[in-house]
Amino acid sequence: MKRFIAFILLLTPLFGFGGEDERIEAMLSKMSFDDKIGQLNQVDGRGDIGQLEAEIRAGRLGSVMNIVDPKLLDRLQRIAVEESPAGIPLLFARDVVHGFKTVLPIPLGQAASFDEELVERAARNTAVEATECGIRWAFAPMMDIARDPRWGRIAEGFGEDPFLAGRLAAAVVRGYQGDSLSDPKSMAACAKHFVGYGAAEGGRDYNTTYIPERLLRDIYFPPFRMAVEAGCASVMSSFNDNDGLPATGNRWLLTDVLRGEWGFDGVVVSDWGSVAGLVPHGAAADNREAAKRCITAGTDMDMSSRSYLRHLRSLVENGEVPMEVVDEAVRRILRLKMRLGLFEHPYARQVTTSDLYSEKILDDACALAREATVLLKNDGVLPLSNVRRILVTGPMADAPYDQLGTWTLDGDKTRTLTPIRALREIAGKEIEILYEPALAYGRDQSTARFGRLRSLARKADVVLAFVGEEQIMSGEAHSLADLNLQGAQREMLELLAGCGRPLVTVFMAGRPLTIERETEISDAVLYAWHPGTMGGRAIAQIILGEASPSGKLPVTFPRCVGQIPMYYNHKHTSHRADGSEGNLDDIPREAVQSVMGHTSSYLDVPPTPLFPFGFGLSYTTFTLSELQLSDTTVPANGVLKVRVTVENRGKREGTEVVQLYVGRKSASVTRPIKELKGFRRVTLSPSESRIIEFELPIDELAFCGADRRTAVEPGSYVLTIGTDSRDGLKEHFSVK
Fold it and tell me: Can you list the alpha helix ranges (DSSP code H) found in 18-139?
């Protein structure tokens, strides 16, 4: 205690009169070499607590993960500030990916809302819950662009589009960090994984990538830059190597681009064990060499591998790593702790009334789950009306654990509101609800209960089938080669489709599945992702007509795995498919070999996706008209103003997501056919119309040209306003 008080007294004048840098230099000057190395070391706290306490007391740790008991957290923190040599508080961290106790829809589902304001509000709620338990550093948001749904971690990100991913990542940063990091209810965000991790070959997690610099700058960098511009406090390096260089040891990425070009002054933390991961990558002979490469590349904190702890002293003493490199990494970590207010308030905040599972937090989680749900098909059966008896079936109808989705370390399945429970609560007094799950879980192959299922289906007015993926089938290290429904789920749907009753199929999954046949045999299809704690109520409200669906797909749905990768913002090609291809019946037998039409397509499947990016239906009908541009020629540093009229021509209130895309046919390098550059949610009553206005800064049209400089090129552009990425109203403009 005396050591800690003396240290604080030493800094007191700086606390009152000095700036951040002066305070940091004062601390650094009093730290031993071992103190400094300790600050660069982060460990998992779920092991031997006695050993953990000993390491904290010796000053060997700067951050601890996965302690969520505030009493234990405070006990460990007290050792750090009162008994360790430097008295520097620990930073407690956690993978708080989509909610803490109250679990939100998976991030891919959140992206389907196209609602920055609600995503930010839900993230703020998450920070309030997590900080109540002492967590001040969250390893989120993840904004890896993913064009391959075989990759299990597609669930953790915001989909395939860099503009949407960046806007939502910035919203999460604002939500987690609030108006000030020093607010006890704020926690530091961490933009991950930098960079290219979502492009792992074949969708196989941890695998290699080859992304040229132009593609990095145009597609994979922008979401991270938007997060940095939003003030994100930290960045996590990715597992993958790109073009032979593992990200955690890539100086060009972490120092030249992130810090040099973008001005990032926060902490770079490795992903779990990725410092030592240079060894199996073949980029370092041993952990000592890996530590040297990573610290000099700009990775400040070593998550879990202890390579810095074990090897930095000898690397510095032997002149292989300059002391200034270590000092600079320590400065960044001290700066983050200072900005979080940990030196003044190191302990978990005290609460008189807990915010965990508060009514407001649950309501916002339900609202986000509603907006995340996408209506993919509706032959008029939804919303349900004039029904007296419903059959609810399928393995996801009452799967409280699976419904939470991947990376829900702190979720409690006993708090999950499942669809069957919600339907009984909302409609049970007026509608008889029959329930037969038929399958015990998603991979269940048994058809023993199908006879009873058929009998009940014939007694019902409508069938609600809840199918999809178990929680364990998506997420980290859970890639799939086959994206069809697992187990006997498709067989179950085929049986139900033959019973002569309307079939509503609701999917809960962590990724796009290949559901062409299931969509064909269903009368209505809802895609709810893994919707979290309140997902059941959100789905029930949509099915029963208490809310109209408004979700839009943040990722393209392929017809089959063979079409992957498939994404809307693909390049122009010299032999673009026209949509007529993919029918084997059109190919003659024993014909003279030909190139069959000169198009980039498959012989056995259409070139179009099952559902395009941005697609989603409503219970009402919207039309767009009167697209107007403020000018037809705009300077490169100007702003183009866009107006369009949206009208609700249906009989129900509903919300449409109006989407703005820009493309160009020619440039110094080949370009995507179109790119999302704006979106706006608009809620309209029946027969109501409204003029929606967009402002398009022309500098957002910049791309990496033939000279490898990112700039706006003059020329002709096509602007499209639509309700998905396929088509819409078009106007041309020029940039000079």
Answer: 20-30, 33-39, 49-57, 70-83, 107-111, 116-132
Q: Could you say which residues of the chain have pLDDT below 70?
A: 1-18, 593-597
The torsion defined by the Cα of 332, 335, 339 and 345, in degrees rounded to 10, comes to 120
Other beta carbons within 10 angstroms of residue 636's beta carbon come to: 14
Contacts of 359 (CB under 8 A, 6+ apart): none
> How far is 446 from 452, CA to CA, in rounded Å?
13
**281 CB contacts (<8 Å, ≥6 apart)?**
241, 246
Contact between residue 504 and residue 543 where contact means Cβ atoms under 8 Å apart: yes
**317 token code pair:** 């003493």
Active site residue 271: yes
Cα separation of 158 and 166, whole Å? 9
The domains of the chain, with CATH numbers, are 622-735 (2.60.40.10)
The 10 Å Cβ neighbour count of residue 557 is: 25
The length of the chain, given as a count of residues: 736
d(CA 53, CA 49): 6
For 554-583, the pLDDT digits (tens) are: 999 999 999 999 999 999 888 888 777 877
Query: In 3D, which of 548, 515, 523 has the Cα closest to residue 657?
Result: 548
Task: Report in angstroms the alpha-carbon separations of 581 from 353, 429, 613, 673.
Answer: 62, 52, 21, 19
Q: What is the pLDDT of residue 594?
A: 63
**Helical (H) or strand (E) element with 525:** strand 524-527
**What does the pLDDT read at residue 575?**
81
Q: Which of 35, 218, 271, 724 is catalytic?
A: 271
